[in-house]
């Protein structure tokens, strides 16, 4: 440990600049996708870039899904389209509290 901690004094952290989820988080808790990023980095560690791109695809996809929620958004969109299709066909009627017609609360 150096006598003057220059990185802390300047407010930079050169050691963690590559990892998005490893930076200091509020209240000291780990970020939501930290575990997925860690698995991805551990998978690719020591393999080299070419092999890691081939062999660590599941870990990378899990990390990207946690970060961007693309699969979740696509699934939600499909569910809502199916609901709208069923409403149009008359096979489903949403409850009153989904229509905004519920009784007022005290």
From TrEMBL:
Disulfide bonds join 33-66, 43-56. It comes from the Eukaryota. It is found in: Mitochondrion inner membrane; Mitochondrion intermembrane space. Keywords: Disulfide bond, Electron transport, Membrane, Mitochondrion, Mitochondrion inner membrane, Respiratory chain, Transport. GO terms for biological process: mitochondrial respiratory chain complex I assembly. It is a peripheral membrane protein. GO terms for cellular component: mitochondrial inner membrane; mitochondrial intermembrane space. Its main location: mitochondrion. The keyword Zinc-finger does not apply. Belongs to the complex I NDUFS5 subunit family. Mammalian complex I is composed of 45 different subunits. This is a component of the iron-sulfur (IP) fragment of the enzyme. Accessory subunit of the mitochondrial membrane respiratory chain NADH dehydrogenase (Complex I), that is believed not to be involved in catalysis. Complex I functions in the transfer of electrons from NADH to the respiratory chain. The immediate electron acceptor for the enzyme is believed to be ubiquinone. This is NADH dehydrogenase [ubiquinone] iron-sulfur protein 5. The lineage of its organism: Eukaryota, Metazoa, Chordata, Craniata, Vertebrata. The gene is Ndufs5.
């Amino acid at each position: 440990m150096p006598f003057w901690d220059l990185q802390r004094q300047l407010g930079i952290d050169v050691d963690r600049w590559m990892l998005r989820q490893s930076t200091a988080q509020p209240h000291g808790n780990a970020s939501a996708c930290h575990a997925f990023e860690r698995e991805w980095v551990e998978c690719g560690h020591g393999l080299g870039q070419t092999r890691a791109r081939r062999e660590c695809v599941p870990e990378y996809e899990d990390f990207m899904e946690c970060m961007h929620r693309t699969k979740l958004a696509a699934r939600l969109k499909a569910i809502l389209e199916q609901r709208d299709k069923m409403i149009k066909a008359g096979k489903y009627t949403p409850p009153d509290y989904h229509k905004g017609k519920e009784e007022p609360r005290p």
